[in-house]
């Protein structure tokens, strides 16, 4: 397992408000349609920490993706600031 | 066998579904936060006419501590099975024997009449892999009539595939828990909310039937001026359901309620007093009560409704909101909570909040000061979790003390020594206010370490601090001092008992037991009494004290009874008493009974690896085999015991006994050459011990050298050789008897045997006769001439393998109790004395003897003298003094 942090994209159903987003200080949020996409550099234990947080807050997890260097931003063109 | 499909639960009637699930062994309710798992269980449990009893365990948040988990589970089961009244609540000990704990829960479950349902709520919070593994064993071995229901947010790692294959596992998952549209309408109706059918459908669609969403929405809708508009705005929002609805709900609360919810969200549980403290306002309890009544994600934890907790999801969101709105307040709130918990003596909570406040030095001090008490309270694993919560920058030498304690508990003695060295170096430079306290703590730990290692001289060095008990300005200092002092007395007395013959052992252990009782530390009390049982068997006198074995047995049984009251009957703490009891049974020739106690000792020692107690375990197993004439098995045990003895310093006397028995058994097993070589290798000082001299005699006898044997025994018999106890002298007389017999001097042989019998009489020892193989010697004794006829008969019974087993006794017809006069007569029956001669011995008339005899026959249900003797032996009535 690669110990170095890697860029991850995490897609959650619904728009996360400021309260819930404060649980993910290391991740940058973007709204994509009715979803929220969180991106950031995470190592494995940080990733599992984020997943535990998602579970604790009862969020609806749709997708997790490890981003390759040539695709650091998911679905370009759909950006909308939260 | 064809795999059965796991039962899936019909969604229209969840309660009925849960009823059906209860027909299988285990039901797992696995669904995300807010799915209504706990509510379902509550609704199911609260129905009238519930046929089974419920044992409910709510797993603590982030439970790392397997020990605490099992204690809580045992407590829940005991409460439910209503066996709680016959024992103390399961009390924590520093020792944790997980398999024994599971066995105990299983046996409590099996004892519960009429079936029991075991509910474990929030199982996902249990993060100890060890506890999950043991839980799997529990769940796959549930007694009939017991059903378990587990709730969890995610599937946990339980190996339940066997149950699944057998169709004994029912599952209820998120989809089953989801509200149907009809149920949504029913919920709204029940909450008195008037919403159009279209509005209800929209709400159902937006929440996707998620229970927490519907409950939150209902809270906001109740009394809302325009419910339709609320639903349509909610439905038009892209925000996540929980966040949207909790924000709505909070906004609808009065400011003081909002403030209370936010400020108390950082507590795992809250009561009115604590909430008043964090909000700075009175009246919190009333707010909490009305929130619970409004079904607003607040629930009380006790029937008196004093403690509350928030729904986890709700609390997590509130905490985030608190950090956003009042970031500066968060450390202060933790600090205030910590202060309150300190006043309540709830140190784990206090330390957690101190850490959360970022007050690391203070957290170090608290943890170091309370590590002794936490260990004694069975919170060793929790303590290690607290230790890990310190960030690298906040490490402190005082934490080395806590680490050493964890190492000691786990038997990592070298690591413990290393950590203690770190702490000790620091003590020199510690501020004067802390120095004495730390010195005492370090000394006490060094004492424990020395005791575990069997370094007895070190023990005596470390106990100087006992002369100056910790006295401080606060009760807390004194309590800490008392804990330390009681632990030290236990360690000291134990070390003294193990170095044998130190007369202070009993005094220190007794003092420790009294102090432990006074300060409410039953674990230490049991520990002291258990060691006292062990200590009392050593009486280095060459002559027996009256009833010393009986006294020892009584002492052990008292310690065991106290341990059992706390549910510690199979814990390491009671092992010394179990072991000593087993040993005395063997000495008294009650081999089967001794073996049973020995087995129980082995169970209690599963987790403890101290070389001292293991030595005794092997030694006792050795004498049991030797007594039964199984030389090879005995050799193995004595060999293992001697190996352990070589690791212990300072218990020379005990080592000599083991070595003596090992050599003697080698000679008896037909390996006298080996024994002689080992004997020659011993230092002169050791070879002069009575136990080794006896072994030399055995070797001489095996070599056909009776004069050599008599020579070896001379100093033991005239009392000049040091001996461990009079048992050694008894053995020496028997060996002398055997030597005289080999020399053809029957008169001298009989005299020696008589002397052995005389020594053995007061305790009714049998083992020396069995180990030395003295059957022939005893049979040659003219019975009617022996002053010890009854004992002689008992011994011969054992030697001929007719020792009545305890099970047989219980199957016999109960005999009416004999009067003291009848017992006196009874004990003459195995002799050849006539009625007239017995009457003369007892200075009574022949008629009186006749009356007694008729009464004896009637009470024992026998017709003649020989069957009376037989029956009396079975009932062990011939023994002069027995403790049973």
Short description:
The complex is a heterodimer of chains A (82) and B (884). In chain A, 21% of the residues lie in helices and 33% in strands.
Short descriptors:
heterodimer, A: 82 residues, four-stranded antiparallel β-sheet, 2 helices, globular, B: 884 residues, mainly alpha, Rossmann fold, Serine Threonine Protein Phosphatase 5, Tetratricopeptide repeat, three-stranded antiparallel β-sheet, 5% strand, disordered N terminus
Describe the protein in words.
The complex is a heterodimer of chains A (82) and B (884). Chain A is an alpha+beta fold and 82 residues long. Chain A has helices at residues 18-21, 44-56; strands spanning 6-13, 28-32, 35-42, 61-66. Chain A is globular. Chain B has 47 helices and nine strands. The two termini of chain B are 52 Å apart. In chain B, the strands form two sheets. A six-stranded parallel β-sheet of chain B has the order 1-6-2-5-4-3. A three-stranded antiparallel β-sheet of chain B has the order 7-9-8. Helices cover 64% and strands 5% of the residues of chain B. The longest helix of chain B is centred in the middle third of the chain and has 24 residues, at 475-498. Chain B has 884 residues and is mostly helical. Among the domains of chain B are: 7-177, P-loop containing nucleotide triphosphate hydrolases (Rossmann fold), CATH 3.40.50; 181-252; 536-799, Serine Threonine Protein Phosphatase 5, Tetratricopeptide repeat, CATH 1.25.40; 806-874, Orthogonal Bundle (Arc Repressor Mutant, subunit A). The A-B interface holds A 12-20, 22-23, 31, 34, 55-60 and B 32-34, 153-154, 210, 212, 237-244, 247, 312-313, 316-317, 320-321, 323-324.
